[in-house]
Write a structure and sequence with these properties.
This protein has 66 residues and is α+β, with helices and mostly antiparallel strands. The chain has helices at 30-38, 45-63; strands at residues 12-18, 21-28. The chain has a two-stranded antiparallel sheet with strand order 1-2. The two termini are 20 Å apart. The model has no long low-confidence stretch (mean pLDDT 91).
Length: 66
């Protein structure tokens, strides 16, 4: 929620804790889901949406550099 277009490719570190200990930690970005979708090798509406999100992110980074 609240991720601006130029930060779609910015990774966030997430940890799942159990009893104060890290069970799993991962780095994830909004584009991680797009990558997973595109790696399926299918051509469908979801794939086209993932491609559009990647292109949108690239355009935002070119237009609004940090």
């Amino acid at each position: 929620t609240g991720i601006v277009a130029r930060d779609l490719d910015k990774s966030f570190h997430v940890e799942v804790l159990k009893g104060g200990e890290t069970v799993i930690g991962l780095d994830y970005s909004a584009l991680s889901y797009a990558y997973t979708t595109l790696s399926r090798g299918k051509t469908d509406t979801l794939t086209e949406l993932a491609k559009a999100v990647v292109l949108y992110s690239e355009a935002a980074n070119a237009y609004l550099p940090e």
